[in-house]
Fold this protein.
Amino acid sequence: MRQAETPTADPVQSEANPAVWSGRFSEPVSERVKRYTASIPFDWRLAPFDIQGSLAHAAMLQHVGVLSAQDLADIRRGLGEILVDFENGRFTWNLDDEDIHFNIERALTRKVGDAGKRLHTGRSRNDQVATDVRLWLRDAIDRILELNIQARRALIDLAEHHAATVMPGFTHLQAAQPVTFGHHMLAWQEMLTRDHERLVDCRRRVNRLPLGAAALAGTSFPIDREMVARELGFDGVCENSLDAVSDRDFAIEFLAAGALIMTHFSRMAEELVIWMTPRFGFIDLADRFCTGSSIMPQKKNPDVPELMRGKTGRMNGHLISLLTLMKGQPLAYNKDNQEDKEPLFDAVDTLVDTLAIFAEMMGSHIDEQTGKRVFHVTVKAERMRQAAVEGFATATDLADYLVKKGLPFREAHEAVARAVRAAEQKGCDLADLSLIELQAFSPLVEADIYAVLTLEGSLAARDHLGGTAPNQVRAAVARARARLG
Ligand code: ARG
């Protein structure tokens, strides 16, 4: 929780503020129970959305004749002031008022009197909180989608710049075949594209209005739910009142999408960490994304990618929290559901920070002096080329060459394996073996083999949709940009 934005607790407590529902009870709850059951220490974050929902509800009540025009005007004025207080950090909450809904209602009543007490007509905190969480989550999804696009733009720019920069591609973390760094960046970009699609799909189910379900069964007031839905920008209403106040599957879905997003970032981060070890030396991250060691002066540690990898754990945990929270709950609302908030809030904070930092770390800017694009990550092309050479990354190309000359693939595989062993013993690349030496492994080898054995020849040969040939990478860059619009 970011401290600067955390409203402070109101020191005025207890006797002055008996609980809203206290009329039915013979004694107040203990301090411990009050703390245990309250959600205001964290759900204060819903305040702007709670106000937005209340404004729409009040406007509808006035429209259908339940509230007077004067009541609506008072409610609008009071909620407007509370929103300004919240935005200026002047909103204070009180634990006696349990949650954000009661705290705002109390503040409103303090400001405008009876109109504040009429606002809750025809609704319950059950449909109110479900509405607030959906409004809050919709807004969070939109922010995450925007950051996803920024991250993808960064990767696409890098891919374009490095469309022909050779690196070894890996399987089993062993050098396998040459690819381009641009091709690798576009692989990441594809992962992030699917993350975007998943969130857009999830957003459709988030964007339904629960308000009007009231406590669980609907209300006897002549409400117009469609009007409220339109006012709040929902695509439609939740069609069953019991389901509307009860289910949090939309939040679980979001966390599942979030867990996949973090899984992707964890994998990318892992590659960045590996590439940055001096043994690989493929890249260097800007200093502002790394830290030093308190004892070893030579160290530059990739803390940011390591944390991206590490924070995946808490995202997976949040998903499991909500799945477990939901399991076994009878219809309709149960207080269990109050526990949906902290995992959701932390998930969104984690995703927003991770995406924003990644977009910056892999991003670029235009230098004002030179007018040139400066990439924040340093790509060490020479080191990557050297690693591709040392890994005999064109061995498959030699085998394919022999197959094209008529040798069955299994025999070609065998011949090339022997050639690799010979090159390894000599301490050179396949392309450094003489024609005579190569012909010892297969008489089919001719002088044109050298075009195939070079890294560039190998790349250029993979010239089809989805392949690593530089012109294919450039075409993929253009397609990816077009998709982003
Ligand atoms: N703070 C509660 C929550 O987050 C609001 C709804 C409470 N409803 C109730 N009937 N206790 O779920």
Notes: Residues 3 and 21 are 31 Å apart (CA to CA).
